[in-house]
Amino acid sequence: MSEPPVRGAGRAEERAEAAMSEAETAGRAEAGARELLEIRGLQVVFDGFRAIDGVDLTVRQGELRFLIGPNGAGKTTLIDVITGLTRPSAGSVRFAGTELVGRKEHRIVRLGIGRTFQTSVVFEELTVVENLDLAATFRRPLWALLRRRRGVSDTVAEALETVGLTDLAERPAGVLSHGQRQWLEIGMLIAQRPRLLLLDEPVAGMSRQERERTGELLTTIAEDHTVVVVEHDMEFLRRYASQVTVLHEGRVLVEGDVAQVRADPRVQEVYLGRTAEEAA
Ligand SMILES: Nc1ncnc2c1ncn2[C@@H]1O[C@H](COP(=O)(O)OP(=O)(O)OP(=O)(O)O)[C@@H](O)[C@H]1O
């Protein structure tokens, strides 16, 4: 379903992005009940295999949504489709009313969607603050990049503060612990001022203490962002999740609050089966 090139489409997209930036400011002030992400009839086929098989998903502005499911359920593929990395064979992904399917990755970032990857994107030789500054320039217009910069911008200072790395601002990112590195990556996303953050397994490999701090961090971030978290850690889910969507074999199996989802026999069978006692 590749589309023919359309003359002026790039400019139309840029206009849409500019409009989105304005809408962004206005949108943040609005009540949190609005639908920000609307996925309908989504299908992704890899060599005849349906990795996503008719997914409908709505995420409202201001939600902290957890996406769980057994290995191969299609969680990462779903994030890949939202961010333009994978093109679906059918369906629609609308973000604040704008269709994302067919848009390039960098344009989707500019529309206000940021994601973390399972692999690190931090520059180890640069300091924490330099990494954040680099991330913050991503959505900045060219003239702003060319201007001589003095000190740390408010955006970067805020991101440092939010992720609790202010004391380590001048240290090279290479010396950070695994947890601190993950927080830096989240800080780098925040510095891009996205409306929607997609976090792929943010507590993987973290110590108990680091997981707790990350849970608190996500709760703070969710106060003024919409956040979708892909997570496997059930203990983490129990403590910090509110709304949960369970994917299984490329479909939405169950959706609801943590208690509803954990009590659902279908979820216990396909996902919590191995931790049924814990789920009780
Ligand atoms: N590029 C690809 N080509 C072929 N098959 C793929 C590709 N990407 C993913 N798949 C398959 O699609 C299915 C969904 O994969 P996906 O990585 O989205 O699952 P997941 O829920 O994120 O799993 P995990 O928890 O293991 O990361 C899997 O069966 C996977 O093998």
Automatic annotation (TrEMBL):
Q: Which PANTHER family match?
A: CONSERVED COMPONENT OF ABC TRANSPORTER FOR NATURAL AMINO ACIDS-RELATED, HIGH-AFFINITY BRANCHED-CHAIN AMINO ACID TRANSPORT ATP-BINDING PROTEIN
Pfam families per UniProt? ABC_tran, BCA_ABC_TP_C
In alphabetical order, the GO MF annotations are: ATP binding; ATP hydrolysis activity
Protein name (database record):
Urea ABC transporter ATP-binding protein
Q: Which organism is it from?
A: Thermomonospora echinospora
Its GO CC terms are: plasma membrane
Give the record's keywords alphabetically: ATP-binding, Nucleotide-binding, Transport
State the source organism's domain of life: Bacteria
Residues crossing the lipid bilayer are none
Annotated ABC transporter domain ranges read 37-274
The answer, when asked if Nucleotide-binding is one of the entry's keywords, is yes
Q: Where is this region: Disordered?
A: 1-27
